[in-house]
């Protein structure tokens, strides 16, 4: 077979002319797509993802890459007061803007395992993207923060954009830091608080010269303001109001997670609230205890890595440690420990008996395990519940009997350890499962067990 003749020079020229005279159409802008085809977008996304059955993460990443290339359009859409879309759509646009900024730095929008190393060319592209984003955000970023500062979801996303800006080029850093401080005190939920702390800490570490000093001063102002607000809040706790203190405790807690915040001026007031006001909300109590704990943890870090430490610092640390342990012990005894009265205990056991009589094997085991744990963990007194458990020792099969035996052995081991610590002799109390718990009348036990065994034997004969 002869080889085909090469195309003529005129044919090649015609093809090139057709190629450049009919260029590939540009993709529509996101604003046009949303406005004209909003209802078709979900179907398009579905078809796109379904076409990548084996690697749907890559499909989503490629799709979102196409969308976020128009991030400048998103930026101006968010600032356009005449662009009327729902609040939910605005939130999604903010998410898309943040995703586009991350994508410009090579981060995958859809998380995946990717160990590829970036070469010098790719790093240069990312650096250029960083410059472009910084220039585009120069005036827009403070306007966005100011516009959405009251929306906790949007502001949580927007404040993290500063992590991707070139702070040496950005000229409105002071305005942005002031807005972040305002956002920090405007919200009390975890996400906006954590995002603001992360962004301000970033400015303190990554900026240079005057900006770094300004960021650190702003952070110090923020810490001092929280301490002052908490002092006022503690006075409100004395008057019976703890909502204001709860919000400020959350703020201080988020700061403590990332850096040392001195609460020496608050330590006595916190301990006073824990000791004298037992009607405070559980979350407030928990946050107060966490403040004391993190304060000790950061103090210990400074002792370990801070070089020479004075004896006064060590004594202060040990005193605060003992105070925290004492308060934890009181709360464990008062709040966690629960002592029901005899009527409630009787009603509880009646419910257990009903479940033991009508339930299947696995449910019976669960019921008896719950009852045994109440005794072995010293949650309720043994006097009433232990004999009642013994009465069902052989009535519900081997599984229930085995659980009772294990509870018996656990109780024996606990008694042995307790006696050993106290230096007292200990005598084995177990009689083949017939004395499961200690403090009971032996004759009463034998009566219960003999009746139970007779009932079980009668049921066995009847079944045979």
UniProtKB/TrEMBL annotation:
One of its GO terms (biological process) is sister chromatid cohesion. Coiled coil: none annotated. Residues 66-298 form the Cohesin subunit SCC3/SA HEAT-repeats domain. Residues 8-18 have a biased composition (Basic and acidic residues). InterPro entries: Cohesin_Scc3/SA, HEAT_SCC3-SA. GO terms for cellular component: chromatin; cohesin complex; nucleus. Residues 1-32, 431-464 are annotated as: Disordered. This is Sister-chromatide cohesion protein, putative. The lineage of its organism: Eukaryota, Viridiplantae, Streptophyta, Embryophyta, Tracheophyta. One of its GO terms (molecular function) is chromatin binding.
């Amino acid at each position: 077979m002869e080889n085909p003749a090469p195309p003529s020079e005129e044919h090649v020229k015609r093809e090139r002319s057709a190629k450049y005279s009919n260029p590939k159409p540009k993709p529509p802008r996101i604003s046009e797509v949303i406005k004209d085809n909003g209802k078709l977008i979900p179907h398009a996304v579905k078809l796109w993802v379904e076409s990548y059955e084996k690697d749907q993460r890559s499909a989503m990443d490629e799709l979102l890459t196409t969308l976020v290339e128009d991030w400048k359009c998103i930026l101006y859409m968010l600032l356009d007061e005449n662009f009327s879309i729902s609040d939910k759509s605005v939130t999604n646009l903010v998410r898309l803007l943040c995703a586009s900024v991350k994508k410009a730095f090579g981060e995958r929008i859809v998380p995946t395992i990717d160990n590829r190393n970036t070469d010098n060319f790719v790093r240069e592209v990312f650096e250029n993207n960083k410059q472009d984003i910084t220039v585009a955000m120069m005036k827009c970023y403070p306007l966005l923060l100011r516009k959405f500062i009251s929306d906790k979801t949007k502001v949580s996303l927007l404040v993290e954009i500063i992590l991707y800006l070139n702070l040496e080029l950005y000229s409105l850093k002071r305005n942005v830091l002031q807005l972040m401080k305002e956002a920090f005190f405007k919200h009390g939920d975890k996400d906006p608080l954590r995002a603001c702390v992360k962004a301000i800490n970033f400015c303190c570490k990554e900026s240079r010269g005057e900006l770094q000093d300004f960021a650190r001063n702003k952070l110090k102002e923020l810490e001092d303001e929280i301490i002052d607000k908490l002092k006022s809040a503690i006075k409100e706790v004395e008057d019976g109001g703890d909502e204001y203190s709860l919000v400020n405790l959350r703020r201080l807690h988020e700061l403590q997670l990332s850096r040392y915040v001195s609460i020496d001026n608050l330590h006595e007031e916190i301990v006073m609230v824990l000791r004298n006001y037992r009607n405070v909300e559980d979350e407030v109590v928990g946050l107060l205890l966490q403040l004391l704990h993190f304060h000790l943890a950061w103090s210990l870090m400074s002792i370990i890595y801070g070089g020479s430490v004075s004896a006064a610092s060590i004594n202060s640390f040990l005193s605060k440690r003992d105070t925290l342990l004492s308060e934890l012990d009181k709360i464990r005894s008062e709040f966690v420990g629960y002592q029901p009265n005899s009527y409630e205990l009787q009603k509880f056991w009646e419910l257990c008996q009903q479940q033991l009589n009508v339930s299947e094997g696995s449910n019976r085991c669960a019921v008896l395990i719950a009852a045994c744990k109440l005794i072995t963990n010293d949650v309720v007194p043994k006097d009433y519940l232990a004999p009642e458990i013994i009465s069902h020792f052989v009535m519900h099969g081997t599984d229930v009997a085995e659980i009772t035996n294990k509870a018996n052995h656990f109780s024996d081991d606990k008694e042995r350890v307790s006696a050993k610590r106290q230096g007292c002799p200990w005598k084995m109390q177990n009689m083949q499962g017939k004395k499961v718990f200690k403090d009971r009348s032996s004759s009463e036990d034998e009566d219960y067990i003999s009746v139970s065994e007779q009932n079980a034997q009668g049921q066995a004969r009847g079944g045979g």
